Amino acid sequence: MNVCEYKPGLEGIPAAQSSISYVDGKQGILEYRGIRIEELAVKSTFLETAYLLIWGELPNKEELETFENEIRYHRRIKYRIRDMMKCFPETGHPMDALQASAAALGLFYSKRALDNPAYIREAAVRLLAKIPTMVAAFQLMRKGNDAVKPNDELDYAANFLYMLNEREPDPLAARIFDICLTLHAEHTINASTFSAMVTASTLTDPYAVVASAVGTLAGPLHGGANEEVITMLEEIGSVENVRPYLDRCFEEKSKIMGFGHRVYKVKDPRATILQELAEQLFEKFGRDQYYDIAIEMERVVEERLGEKGIYANVDFYSGLVYRKLGIPTDLFTPVFAIARVAGWLAHWKEQLGENRIFRPTQIYRGRRDASYTPIKERM
Ligand code: CMC
Questions:
Q1: Which of 33, 94, 201, 237, CA to CA, is 20 to 30 A from 210?
Q2: Domains of the chain: residue spans and CATH
Q3: Rounded to two decimals, what is the model's pTM?
Q4: Which residues form ligand 1's pocket by a CB distance below 6 Å?
């Protein structure tokens, strides 16, 4: 066996063979099952994209209708899940609430038949269908209100905004939200997907797989960055403050949220699309002062860090879009999770197809053959 060089963060080490998505970080290319993200964003819907990711091919008309109807049917959550969520502290972060609720689905749907395609499909449908309902339910219940039931007349994206804001969304807002979901649906083996794959490789249930991925997505270096971007834009407060704020960051060598990527060394293609979507929203619903701050930030960061390959990533503009759609800041990462469930499920299914439990090795740096010192002799 070759002894490999240790790479912190497993940078550049292949952890699997996969046919789900492809990223070219130098050219800024992202493809799902070979189709460019720019094309999917314009021509597809999130559910069609989820089907493509999980089952490998675009569905025909009938397959798509069946899939959409299955999702619609499974959107409701059991009243006992709702009651359990009501007991969550309202001060808790919605990502923690989502992680707990996703894991709890395993209590209610405990059958496990990982070699049965019908089981795989049912579990995938349940997770895709119920996670938006759980996110919206927690949002309303933490404010002391009842959760809103899903509306069968509305499609996936519109229904989520309806459950969240208690009114039917504007069609442009719903379409833009659907595109956001497509953009966030999959991104090769990032931290949360790797977490899903490791959990999947033990042959546990898919609810545990998704719950572990949700926990991983929550961190500020991963999905949590979109929330931090808005906090940062609010703290900066005006275009004039951008340069002094960034100068402090450069001096302290602190990370600027929404910039940099392990793989992309140019602007993230999803950030480019999200920026266009933000502009469409501002045109229809009014410009947001934070957008001007963001544009200036991007200009200064590019000027200072562009040569190091640090550019805006997906999280930089997504928060501005979500804010305009009426989504509260601490729901940005749960919304990311709603979309990424599609990718996690695709990797779960792929992992099961050729499974071997993940068990990497380590380079041991600790003591050997140490003796036990009785407590009274310890300093
Ligand atoms: N601001 C300032 N400097 C940065 C940034 C940044 N956002 N990102 C990387 N750098 C610098 C870093 O200081 C280091 O410089 P040096 O070589 O002089 O020490 C160099 O670039 C390499 O950085 P790294 O942290 O080793 O890179 P990584 O591949 O381990 O980290 C990252 C990638 C995304 C965690 C990192 O860029 C980062 O922390 N960005 C801010 C958080 C963020 O926006 N996260 C969302 C990522 S995209 C969506 C997702 O994954 O969920």
A1: 33
A2: 41-219+328-353 (1.10.580.10), 225-324 (1.10.230.10)
A3: 0.94
A4: 9, 190, 221-223, 225, 255-262, 305, 308, 310, 313-315
